[in-house]
Amino acid sequence: MPSYQQYLKATKSEIQETDVQTVQKIVESGATTPVVIDVREKDEYVQGYVPGATWISRGNLESKIEDVVPNRDTPVILYCAGGNRSAFAAKSLQQLGYTHVQSMAGGFSSWKRSSRSSLL
Fold this sequence. Notes:
The protein is α/β, with parallel strands linked by helices. It has 6 helices and 5 strands. It has a single domain (4-113), classed as Rhodanese-like domain (Oxidized Rhodanese, domain 1, 3-Layer(aba) Sandwich). Strand 2, helix 3 (42-45) and strand 3 (54-55) form a beta-alpha-beta unit.
């Protein structure tokens, strides 16, 4: 049986990740796709989030995603605090048939540390 770290590493090898700079360019451009989804808990979300992001907590993602992204071919970027929950969430959406899903590496913590944190 794998450890958590082994499981996380295996999951990350099966998904696509994107970096904060790419997400910042998308946000700055005002693009409506990809859809950016924050999978953190509500108390984390209310403390700050990526502009334009939709909040769906990780625990509700599978049951709520079709309301927000009904077309499974729509590009989706997921993020959490550090990039782990969003990696598992990306894998889950892939299993639901979503074809263009990415996890933001480093999560919201990296977003805040970035040179463009004034976007908060």
